[in-house]
Amino acid sequence: MTAQPPDFAPIGVSMPEKNLRAIRAALVVPQDRAAFDSGLKAVLDEVRVSLDLSALNDFVHRWWISACDSVKDPEGRRRMHVKAEQVLAGEPTSSGRPWRDVLAARGVEL
Predict the structure, then answer these.
(1) What is the pLDDT of residues 71-98, one digit of tens each?
(2) 49 contacts: CB under 8 Å, gap ≥ 6
(3) pLDDT, tens digit, for every residue of 27-42?
(4) 98 to each of 16, 65, 102, 103, how far by Cα in Å?
(5) Strands annotated E in the chain
(6) 110 contact partners, CB below 8 Å, separation of at least 6
(7) Which residues contact 40 (CB under 8 A, 6 or more apart)?
(8) Which of 49, 75, 76, 94 has a CA 20 to 30 Å removed from the CA of 10?
(9) Core vs surface per residue 3-42: b (16+ CB within 10 A) or e
(10) pTM for the complete prediction?
């Protein structure tokens, strides 16, 4: 299954197929690969108990989105993990634009 939004990929960049092997191969940041591996083990354990594949389908879809993001902007994924580690460690981070301003610019009312 490779349903991909036509305007999602930059020109010349091929998005990964929507399967576990292709998704994992597209994850260039070690933290993403570790989270994928850990999450896959957990979801497969859940499927074994429940015999319901919907959890696996949801997992594949969520990680396919991250894999597409990784292909599209690998440096952005790396920056995201650095920022997340800073936040989790309680370190000060640059604030950037407030969410209210970003949403207001997009015409979203809170």
Answers:
(1) 999 999 999 899 888 888 888 777 677 7
(2) none
(3) 999 999 999 999 999 9
(4) 33, 25, 7, 9
(5) none
(6) 100, 103
(7) 20, 59
(8) 94
(9) eeeeeeeeeeeebbbbebeebbebbebeebeeebeeebee
(10) 0.71
